[in-house]
Amino acid sequence: MNNSLAVVVLASGVLYGTPLLYAALGELLAERSGVLNLGVEGMMLVGAVMGFWAVQRLPGPSPLVLAAGIGVAALAGAAMAAIHAFLVVTLRANQIVSGLALTIFAGAAGLSSYLGNDLKLTGLPAKHQFQEVFPKSFQDLPVIGPMVFGQSVLVYASWVCVVLVALYLTRTRTGLNVRAVGESPAAADAMGINVAGYRYVHTLVGGAFAGVGGAAFSLSITPQWADGLTGGAGWIAIALVIFAFWRPALCLLGAYFFGAFTALPFALQGHGVTVAPELFQTLPYVATIAALVLVSSRAARLRFGAPAALGLPYVREER
Amino acid sequence: MRIERRLQQPWWLAVVVPVASILVAFALSAVVLLLTGHPPIHSFHRLFDAAFIAHGALSDTIVSATPLAFTGLAAAVAFRMNLFNIGGEGQLYGGAITGATVALLMAGAPSPLVIAGMIVAGAFGGALLAAIPAVLRAFFSTNEIITSLMLNYVVGLVLEYLIFDSHSYLRETRGFEASVFPQGKTLPAEATWSSWRVHSLALPLGFLLAIGVGVVVWVLYARTRFGFEVQVIADSPRAGRYAGMRTRRKILAVMCLSGAIAGIGGASQDGDFRHQLDPRGLRQANYGYTGIVVAALARYNPLAVVPVAVLLGGLQNAGFALQGVDFPNGLVGVMQGLILFCVLGGELFVRYRVRFERGTAPAQTPAPEPAP
Amino acid sequence: MGGEVQASPPDPLTMPPAVALRGITKRFPAVVANDRVDFEAAAGEVHALLGENGAGKTTLSNILTGLYRPDEGEILLDGRPVEFHSPRDAITAGIAMVHQHFRLVSPFTVAENVVLGDQRDIGRSFVVRPRAIEARVEELSGRYGLAVDPRSHIWQLSVGEQQRVEVLKALYQEARILILDEPTAVLTPQEADALFETVRAMAADGRTVIFISHKLHEVKAVADRVTVLRRGRSLATVSASEATPRSLAALMVGREVEIGRRHQDRPAVGKAVLELAGVWADGDRGTPAVRDVSLQVRSGEIVAVAGVAGNGQRELAETIVGMRATTSGTVEIGGRRLRSGDPRSAISAGVAYVPEDRLGTGVAPGMSVASNVVLKTYRRSPVSQGPFLRLARIRDLAARAIDKYDVRTSGSQVPAWQLSGGNVQKVVLAREFSGEPVVLIAASPTRGLDVSSIETVHAYLREAAATGVAVLLLSEDLDEILALADRIAVMYEGAVAGEREAESATVEELGLLMAGGHRD
Prior knowledge:
- The complex is a heterotrimer of chains A (319), B (372) and C (520).
- Chain B has 15 helices and 4 strands.
- Chain B is mainly α and 372 residues long.
- A two-stranded antiparallel sheet of chain B has the order 1-4.
- The longest helix of chain B has 30 residues, at 111-140.
- Chain B is globular.
- In chain C, 32% of the residues lie in helices and 25% in strands.
- In chain C, the strands form 5 sheets. Chain C has a 6-stranded mixed β-sheet, with helices on both faces. A 6-stranded mixed β-sheet of chain C has the order 16-19-20-13-21-22, sandwiched between helices. In chain C, strands 2-1-4-5 form a 4-stranded antiparallel β-sheet, covered by helices on one side.
- Chain B binds chain C through residues 4-7, 223-228, 231-232, 235-236, 238-244, 359-365, 367-368, 370-372, and chain C through 23, 25, 28-32, 35-36, 69-74, 83, 231-233, 321, 323, 343-344, 347, 353, 355, 357, 360-367, 371, 375-376, 378-379, 384, 387-389, 391, 408, 418, 420.
């Protein structure tokens, strides 16, 4: 049963959905503070290449090296996000164009490609990879075996992150403050909350998450480095945040949903179904468009809208 | 640090700031090069040489600049109304597909007719693709950034499917080479677009067409009712609605115009340069995304797009020419990104005046008469 | 945990004032908002800051609350100079403000809004404890007569209730100095009286209350002393009991002002031009905002729609001019039915609209004055010829409009956002009247304007009626309504609660209708 198409797709959905989940959680945090960061694809790629580089170069036992790789990926993603944060929070640049600039700068045929070539990282498999954690016996359980117990630490850590982010936003002071910053920066400012500070921090954290999501590709899924490795996952993650109405739990469901679409063509090939792969590969993108249209419909928007100040620079002294 | 909105924008600011942005971007690129162990001055010298100076470089730069001019205009047209059409890449592919199809269908007809047919088909293909995010935005309030972007991936995959995986009309099926490595049918000779020589410089039809389109778009936006409405809606959609402007129709019109221009760029790729439908080449080139950089650097002014496209085309061209072990492909993207960052940062100085002051002055100075 | 300060009355001779501003100057690119302003208030005092719109009252209070930094001058609390680098510093110093435009987070609950940014005791804990906060909010509500459910969300509350939340925020911060910025603009007369009670209670506690207003009778009703601001300068500080409305008005505006009532001479009223029959329309949230409204305005008549903001007036105006679709009912101009949700239909029928949102809807703020003058006429000649605009013609028309309506601007190419509120309104009026309308819808046309602009706008409205235009005025200012209208309709919760002839209407009766009591 565990070899049936359905189970394979579900289990792969979790695997392929994990980078989406990390990136979406990060973008969710940034957007909750009112900053739209379209540079997710770029941040993921830089995270992927830098995490890969760390794993290839650092000596030591596998768990430590992988942990260091994730750490480096997170830092790289945050560094990219810092550029965007500086431009949009301090210099009040247009958030959409700035995010695009970040994707061009850091993405495929940009910095990530530059680093990948310069550091001679292409073509080789990762020296250390994330492996499954639970023993084979667990994985033989029907359905939940491969889905739940057949995953790596990265996947389990992502679940913890979902819970942490959800608790953060709903139960803590800082979470309340950041939500206020995203909904009404004027109100937050008047109450003494440092709007710019919150926006910087959450954008950088968002970048860190994106970096980790990228590393999930280069250290777990693929696990290699190639130019443009993420194949648009960053953009799907942005759509995912909208699709999830800016809620972490729904991000999880959505990530696995889109992950399943991404996994479908490979699963089908594995089952001997010979359909042109390109057409199936369009599925996640088409599904994203369809999901967005549904979500944008008036009723949905009225009740679960975006943070009201998303995408708008906050200016205190403008007359 | 104090930031104040400017009351008047001196005209020279609109030129100085982009130029200064490019210079700063080059400086930052130099830093990147230094940090990764490449000699910056030498690299820039090689870049400039390969872009403009070397024998035939300028013609090659025009070749690179032509698609960028189209996608740049496409982006400028849409971004001026706050419609962020990122789908220029896919719309260009669409125009390439329809342009190549019409060229093959019209084989045997007189060349001017075929060329005209390709232009129309390219515009139509691009406009059709742009209509999708346009309709979704106008009628369902769906974010056009993501929908247009997703379509880039979809059309890119369709493009590859047509040549690599199917036995479509567009695919070359005869010949030994074709069975080993899939490629598109070579377009008939009638479908080759004209080109004019000025001294040693080759000016393809596409390039001249782009200049023409730029002028037309400028007139449209600066001197017509259509352009007036675009300006108002971009400034304040509510005011536009208040004035009785048909916002939805405008969204459709502007997006389709944008897509059509990008589509013509795709047809130009078929007719001017590649003479077949070339998925790999088109996908590697990133014309659509670079077009956005062109548009931003030109500050969305249609007349400035073509000169800027030549500049960035030079960069792109040099990147291809110099590609190798010591000149990584990613450098072009890095420099483009840095240019865009600097242009964005520079915008602040165009719209605002920045002053540095320390705290509050305790003394009382005579104050000017308050305004009535 | 105290809220009380001192019980004994302050001795002005020995104690420094609770708050003092000396020589405060604040400049913006286009105007000097505060010009060497001196101001002081004592603990336990209600001190009114009086001035017309644009005099610099809000700027001054923003400086006091740390939102703006002054260019010159100093702030002293209890005699000690202080410097505020951000709102946090002001909050820590015990200053709180109830803003004219509320600074509330709409999706949050009352409790969440009140505790936002708080850094003391309950606030200090990393984890939010909703129960404890709600208890504190209820305690404060009871003590100061500010009834509101701490668990309800802001968007569910009426405007008056939202203001109570703003006051609760200040009290929760245990502010020693409270600033209320034009608080009664959004209240019914009865609600305003209740607010004055709250204000007196706060002062009795030893707090300092600074009450900002441009309404003379309010200032006399609630304040101990009054400081008058005019054009950014502080003119005089007088005792409220000794000053008269006349003397205050003279100080405020700098000349004698007519505080009188309506002009009695009005030409005969004609037939009904604007007719609404059973109009229903949905608001932004998808729920009905206009419920079964039937109304008639005749040629030469001024009908006013009174009501507290948020009762459907804005939506009603938008429905009439086609910016909002009707879900049921009809709007007719001179017998011709207008197409629902189509502004062009209304424009071509001769409906002129002066919207409430001057700068965002009435003009395109980034575009030139000239462009805004032709905003509705650009489609036809002589402004355009075929698809092309005739730029010279546009400049010409704009110059004439600027001249005729006395718009103060340095040129017709200046972007609209640089003009003062009064001048923006003149541009809007110039444009609307140029089309020779038969109906004029004016929504809060004088909000935020200085006195002479207000007089100008009123004059234009009267003149329009005198030439036979049917005028529908929607306003929250009862004084304005009583001064201008022939008939008054009161809106409450989207429906017309009652109609009265202006001559026989009383403030009390209107106030009751506005609050939902005593429906017809």
